[in-house]
Amino acid sequence: MFTIFRGGQSGAWRVTRFAPVKGAGLVRTPALSSVYSASIALPILPSTNSWRLAGIASHVRYVERAEKEKLVAVQAGLGRPEASLAALIPIKKSAAWWDLTQEERRRIFEDKSQHIAGSMKYLPAIARQLYHCRDLGEPFDFLTWFEFEPGHADMFEELVGTLRRTEEWNYVEREVDIRVERERLDAG
After folding, report:
1. Where are the beta strands (DSSP E) in 57-117?
2. What's the pLDDT at 73?
3. I need a labelling partner for 157 at 20 to 30 A (CA). Which of 85, 108, 163, 165 fits?
4. pLDDT for the residue numbered 41
5. At 16, is the secondary structure helix, strand, or coil?
6. What sign for the dihedral angle of Cα 33, 34, 39, 40?
7. 181 near 83, Cβ under 8 Å?
8. Are 164 and 106 in contact (CB under 8 A)?
9. How far apart are CA 87 and CA 89, in angstroms?
10. Which domains does the chain show, CATH number per domain?
11. Does the global pTM surpass 0.85?
12. Between the CA of residue 93 and those of 71, 97, 109, 115, 168, what are the distances in Å?
């Protein structure tokens, strides 16, 4: 099942911040939507005021069994009513990253950058899902989606800042940071 994010004029999420972090950005749009689909629909015509990114949630990579069990035990699911803030952060890594073996990438990802261990303290407050899109011919390798409550916004900023200071992020050649919010589902 594919997850398709569309930036456009309407959607369930209102864009509150749109920042190219590294490399080329995307067209700034006022809204974001996401849908699950059995196929990726191609854009009808190229548009100067919208975009479409697609990925697939796959098995976790670079994770050892004990780490996976800890993650599963503490992570929250997406779609919590109180999580009215979210971030979509598409990332493309360099050819140098992909030229490394899986073992070399694991050493950088966890042994040097502490991606898993360092992120554990932010769970379950921040729910996350990684969508792979490198093999789909998409412009990014990963689409990272995070959801959190307004009271955890500073915690999310800390998490993102910590990850961007790691050795792993030296291999990022393109990154866009899109922050969104929706009305609380329990708001009346």
Report:
1. 85-93
2. 83
3. 108
4. 66
5. strand
6. positive
7. no
8. no
9. 6
10. 2-39+51-181 (3.30.70.3420)
11. yes
12. 24, 6, 13, 15, 9
Supply 110's token pair.
């966890």
In tens, the pLDDT along 27-75 reads 999 999 998 887 776 554 456 688 999 999 987 776 777 877 877 888 8
Both tokens of 72, joined, read: 């599963």
Q: Tens of pLDDT along 150-167? A: 999 999 999 999 999 999
Q: Which of 34, 23, 31, 24 is nearest to 49 (CA)?
A: 31
Counting every residue written for the chain, the total comes to 188
Residue 29 has a pLDDT of 95
To which residue do tokens 């990272």 refer?
144
Cβ atoms 147, 85 nearer than 8 A: yes
Instruction: Name which of 145, 144, 131 is nearest 83 in CA terms.
Output: 145
Instruction: List strand residue ranges (DSSP E) for 23-155, in order.
Output: 31-37, 51-56, 85-93, 127-132, 142-148
Dig out the tokens for 183 from the structure: 């009305």
Joined together, the tokens standing for residue 44 give 């009808």
CA distance 128 to 81: 15
Question: Does the pLDDT at position 105 exceed 50?
Answer: yes
Amino acid at 91: I
Sign of CA dihedral 129, 12, 88, 52: positive
Distance spanning both ends of the chain, measured CA to CA: 33
